[in-house]
Amino acid sequence: MFGSHLSIAGGMEKAVAEAKRLGLSTVQVFTKNQQQWKAPPLDPKAVDTWKSACDQAGFDQTVSHDSYLINLASPDEMLRAKSIGLCDDEISRCELLAIPYLVMHPGAHMGKRDDASDEAAGLERIADALSGLLKRHAKGRTVICLESTAGQGTSLGHRLEHLGTIIELCGNSERLGICLDTAHLFAAGYDFRGRKFSGLMRDVDQTVGVDRVKVWHLNDSKKPLGSRVDRHEHIGLGTIGLEGFAPIIKDKRFKNVPKILETPKEKHPDGCDWDVVNVEALKNARLLR
Questions:
Q1: DSSP-derived secondary structure for 83-124
Q2: What pLDDT score does 285 carry?
Q3: Which of 48, 115, 246, 276 has the most crowded CB, counting CB atoms within 10 A?
């Protein structure tokens, strides 16, 4: 199940139409301007139009990505309160739109980089915020997917243990899943190319459980293994290479899990859309041994 993060300019249904034009089977969107703290409420007609477009396209596993402004790990009480409020709104919007998965970056603790006590405090702040949000949306169905990160600055989530700790502190809620981003994993130091993929899956199973993987972000990386720098590249053209994607595509456990491209939206030199080229590259990765 391949999809891409697409623009909602002109109406959210436009992203669905574009995904169908590109031959995709799902889509990831922002449900609002991700660079703004506040957004007008969703218009009921816009909600109905989105749902109708998804039904007609057969998209039942759509994905939303929340605002990059949100930082549930912040020690700044005012910023954290604003982040909780915005995250609350993001969840509500997904519930209204019947979007089953909301991907979010865990947050940055803003202390000393890689300091164990600062990391622990940040993880506790995230879990405390999420626990409150889950209680507030106890009757909801949207699964919040904690995304693995590259580990730039003081960002949490570059170790799978971080994600596992948050989930455990939230009482192992079924409303929490994870999103594995290939570029982020690689930059964080996880080498999953070829036969090393089984090692990554062992780590995933021991820390969060493979069944919690609800979304993949499939991006190659401009930066090398362990660089802790987040820079996406087109599939097969970065430091991961096709061999890094082959085992993911072949793994039957993820056949019906949304696999979202977040690669640059450009035209390939031959005039094709890069999303089409990237999906073709992923399909060809199945042929690799």
A1: HHHHHHHHHHHHHHHT--EEEE--EE--SSTT-HHHHHHHHH
A2: 81
A3: 246
